[in-house]
Design goal:
- The chain is of the alpha+beta class.
- It has five domains: about 1-35 and about 745-890, Isoleucyl-tRNA Synthetase, Domain 1, CATH 1.10.730.10; about 45-160 and about 610-685, Rossmann fold (3-Layer(aba) Sandwich), CATH 3.40.50; about 300-510, Isoleucyl-tRNA Synthetase, domain 2 (Alpha-Beta Complex); about 690-725, no CATH class; about 895-955, Ubiquitin-like (UB roll) (Roll), CATH 3.10.20.
- The protein is built from 32 helices and 31 strands.
- The strands form eight sheets. Strands 22, 23, 24, 25, 26 and 27 form a six-stranded mixed β-sheet that branches. A four-stranded parallel β-sheet has the order 2-1-20-21, with helices on both faces. The protein has a four-stranded antiparallel β-sheet with strand order 6-5-7-15.
- Helix 26 (about 805-820) runs parallel beside helix 28 (about 850-860) and helix 28 (about 850-860) runs antiparallel to helix 29 (about 865-870).
- The longest helix has 19 residues, at about 805-820.
- It is globular.
- Mean pLDDT is about 95; it is low at about 1-10.
Amino acid sequence: MSETNSAAETVAPHRYTAAMAADIEARWQDFWDAEGTYEAPNPSGDLAGNPELAAKPKKFIMDMFPYPSGAGLHVGHPLGYIATDVFARHQRMTGHNVLHTLGFDAFGLPAEQYAVQTGTHPRVSTEANIENMTAQLRRLGLGHDKRRSFATIESEYYKWTQWIFLRIFNSWYDTEADRARPIDELVAQFESGSRPTPDGRDWSALSSVERADVLSGYRLAYASDAPVNWSPGLGTVLANEEVTADGRSERGNFPVFKAKLRQWNMRITAYADRLLNDLDGLDWPEAIKLQQRNWIGRSEGARVDFPVDGAGDITVFTTRQDTLFGATYMVLAPEHELVERIIPAAWPEGTHAVWTGGHASPAEAVTAYRKLAAAKSDVERQAEAKDKTGVFTGAYATNPVSGEKVPVFIADYVLMGYGTGAIMAVPAHDARDFAFARAFELPMRCVVQPSDDRGTDPSAWDDAFSSYEAKLVNSANDEISLNGLGVVDAKAKITEWLKERGVGEGTVNFRLRDWLFSRQRYWGEPFPIVYDEDGIAHPLPESMLPLELPEVDDYSPRTFDPEDADTQPETPLSRNADWVNVTLDLGDGNGPRKYRRETNTMPNWAGSCWYELRYLDPYNDEKLVDPAIEQYWMGPREGQPTGGVDLYVGGAEHAVLHLLYARFWSKVLHDLGHISSAEPFHKLYNQGMIQAFVYRDSRGIAVPAAEAEERDGTFYYQGEKVSRVLGKMGKSLKNAVTPDEICAEYGADTLRLYEMAMGPLDVSRPWDTRAVVGQYRLLQRLWRNVVDEETGEVTVVDTEPGEETLRALHKAIDGAGQDMAGMRFNTAIAKVTELNNHLTKAGGPLSRSVAESLVLLVAPLAPHIAEELWHRLGHTESVVHQDFPVADPAYVVDEAVTCVVQVKGKVKARLEISPSITDEELEALALADPAVVAALGGAGIRKVIVRAPKLVNIVPA
């Protein structure tokens, strides 16, 4: 406690101080917990027996739940939690049945990395972190329904994460029905012959391995060998969404490389169109919608097949199929599966020396180049480097429109992550292809007439020519001519021609790739999958869930060399042979058999893909969620056609990670009939960030911000000059301020008010500990207006307030109420402050009605002091469930406003008028005013501009 507060207590024993705040806040937090004040009733039973409660509209409010860090909370973390708490409290007071709770996203790399360093089991450190953060959050007075809280590491929770995975594994996407269906229905189609197998054989003629392979091509969760993002620094693979724009891991900033591994994937691409289209019905920030649209990346074009002798077809996707006659070579991504199949034993006769890279054979050249490409990130590969690299595979493909043999290269500027991993190169009309063709002395053919004077010989050009407005040239064969057509017409004509000849068709492509769902870690949900002796994956029966993590001695995964095909990552689970190798009866009629468990774990995103559903029905051990409960809280309704949480608050950084994944899981569960909501979150709000100054010494090392001193605009630490910049708040930057510190110095209500008053919620703002005292003084004045600081007695009187006070009160009620509903908490606090200042200046005891309205007005923002004052005013029920005050319109409107009257743009009169005056009435008053008549001097009037009730502008003739 500060010396100032101690001195004040000596003078005024009942003054609102940090010590008093601590006592008030602890008492009411205990009371709320004991009384279940924030428990939200569910429709089954609770609402049925309470018609009044059942008639209330519901409001489901959520925060993106926290990861339980060992560092605990700093004052930046609770910004969103306090905001949703204020909003939830206001919604309760305005007649809503509010569900607001918070859990912990507790699987993930930080706890595992700590375990590697210290040997501490991740569960031990995680649960300790949860306990600490729970205490910190409780001290803030957050009105959560604590019965519904959980952590994703609880077996009762991840049993259902595993259950959902099995639903996804046992489903396929029916493109005709445009929804997911159980895999058994697909099997029935194969068995009946209504759906042919890929090679035309009867289903009964396929071996069990062949059937499993066929079904794997349809399942929404499947394992495959594919190029993946390998991060040696983390010892695991990463999804595309977890790799930053500069080719590093989103967590830890480690380099990421390409490797080929067998991994689990989620077929999120099956939902690309729906994920895109359903954004229109969501109340989300446009910036987040745009990020998702760009990540999904829908583009219309054509699939074109280029045959390769003896090796099948190379299929490309292009949005410029009109330029097909200009394709003079092809490029495959180095990782493309066809590369090995098309490589001849020796270089074809006449192979250009620059194409070989100086290697004796195509196999040698390809192997060497693949090693170089694997060491680059996707961003580095796509960078506009001056020198293009690649190597000839030794193979030729046939251009289907010209019959021309075109060489096939591999080059790192083509990625497997987009299209088919193969391109037809049209160097005259694509800048990257142009640069590559120049480097490798490849032919270029102009097929789009340039609009400038460069001519049609690309060898004389400085760069490619690209246009959607120009006409086609040099684009004809014996069957079709595109010459003279515009791009749109040419695309349509060539697409139809390709389809008629079975060498292509119009199609839609997406940038979105399937979601890589395996991690080579320990601290994650185990896959409920086992493999038989033939390598076929089998789902565990529901009776065997949850599959829990075994104990291990070493939490470190063994990394591997992605260039060495004989090495594979070794996961911590794979070293526990007793857990991996098991004999089980899966209830499939085959009796007990030997199996091998999956030794990868699920990514940390798995638990957050569905946690909103667990909040609804957290103790249900029989179903994922009771249908009636889910329908009540999240079902579709007017204005929310796809259902979902009413308000979801969190950071914008999860736009294409958590938010996209959760949408996918919801759609699968909706298709399979488990939930009524096709979207998880109807309204999304992104809060800003609380920033803090970072002080660095001459070495660039951060020094403790609390110990930096300012002298005449220059900053020093221990006598040495330091720099100061605004940045993130965090332990590593030595500028973190904990909520515990502020609560100890001023109280939780002061912290709540300060964070909400700092500025608009969606804007980042700098933290300034010195400014916190302003909100502390507001609470002290509020307290003083109701309680005598000497005696502790309530000072209100049972008399009617004056009209001026009524106007101030009702304007504050009206304005602050609208602001809270609109999440403009900073302006709501300003209005409460203005009212409180008015009451302070007015002097004398407050009327009871004014005092009670003031307390109710401040209750969502500073609930502890409001609860204390409410009870001191004689009430026995909690302030939490009282009605928010309603403004009287008669007192909200100003009694009179000042209207400025101008003649020739100069003010000639000011009129005190009713704010409801009409334009016609105001014009008549202005023209009749003596000062205006004198200013006109008998001149005629050309125009009168009226902006009731504030302005009249008269223009003489």
